[in-house]
Specification:
38% of the residues lie in helices and 16% in strands. It is an alpha+beta fold. It is globular and about 40 Å long.
Length: 128
Amino acid sequence: MNLIEFKKVLQKSWSKETSYCPDDWSNSNSALGQCAVSALVVNDYFGGDIVWADALLPTGQKISHYFNFIDGKVVDLTRSQFPEGSIIPEGSEKKKDFSSTREFMLSNVNTKRRYEQLKGIVKNNLAA
């Protein structure tokens, strides 16, 4: 499976329950709040590194954003959650006292729960 096909399955798997901001999530912006859990699932299937950056919205607001770096290329399957004109800098590790960004992300109970849920839905959708 290539990333284009995988992105379709991933998008179909997103829900209010897998979003970091369920109260703001909608079908019209289904990528909203899905970056961390999606980056983890993409990492499961395609390897590479998970990176982090502060996305800068046109309003000047900064929002924490996770995405993937695979085979020397940025892979950001949740970029569409941000309005046009948003700037996402080059990603870097965000691991604090952990051995990897992935391990840091999974230390958050809410992120781990949402990741496990999304991972299961993606697995089922791939099998369908």
